[in-house]
Amino acid sequence: MGKARQTVVMFRDLFGLRRFDLDTVARFVLTVRKNYRVVPYHNWSHGFSVANSMYAIIKRSSNALQEYEVRETFDGDQIAYKRRR
Q1: Distances in whole angstroms, Cα of residue 20 to Cα of each of 31, 43, 58
Q2: Contacts of 59 (CB under 8 A, 6+ apart)
Q3: Are 9 and 1 in contact (CB under 8 A)?
Q4: Chunked mean pLDDT (size 10), the chain, 85 residues
Q5: How far is CA 84 from CA 32, 39, 57, 79, in A?
Q6: What is the CB neighbour count within 10 angstroms for residue 53?
Q7: pLDDT tens digit string along 59-78?
Q8: Among 74, 75, 80, 83, which is most exposed with the fewest C-beta within 10 angstroms?
Q9: Nearest one of 73, 66, 78, 70 to 3, comparing CA atoms
Q10: Which one of the listed residues 5, 19, 27, 42 is annotated catalytic?
Q11: Alpha-carbon distances, residue 70 vs 2, 19, 65 (angstroms)
């Protein structure tokens, strides 16, 4: 499974589709992927690795975080990046 698709799967698992429809989430992820710079380290693969690590931590935290904290923890870097554009 590709990184973009896996990111959508993680997002859907964490938040469901109550507030965001699948097409919007997929477009958001693809836009983030497209706008990453081509550099050796801070690139799409690194961003995915961070998101995947945060996903694993969140899933194991057993409701230790509020929903907004989970959302900001999981995709805060992507949101911050998109706001700068």
Answers
A1: 16, 25, 19
A2: 13, 14
A3: yes
A4: 92 85 91 88 88 90 81 64 44
A5: 12, 19, 27, 9
A6: 10
A7: 898 778 887 888 777 766 55
A8: 83
A9: 78
A10: 42
A11: 23, 14, 6
Q: Residue 65 in contact with residue 73, Cβ under 8 Å?
A: yes
What whole-number distance in Å separates Cα of residue 36 and Cα of residue 30?
10
**φ and ψ of 28, to 5 deg:** -60, -50
Report the Cα 42 to chain-centroid distance in Å.
Answer: 15
For residue 69, what are its two tokens?
């904290």
54 touches 73 (CB < 8 A): yes
Answer yes or no: 42 catalytic.
Answer: yes
Query: Cα separations (Å) of 54 from 23, 38, 47, 50, 84?
Result: 23, 23, 11, 6, 22
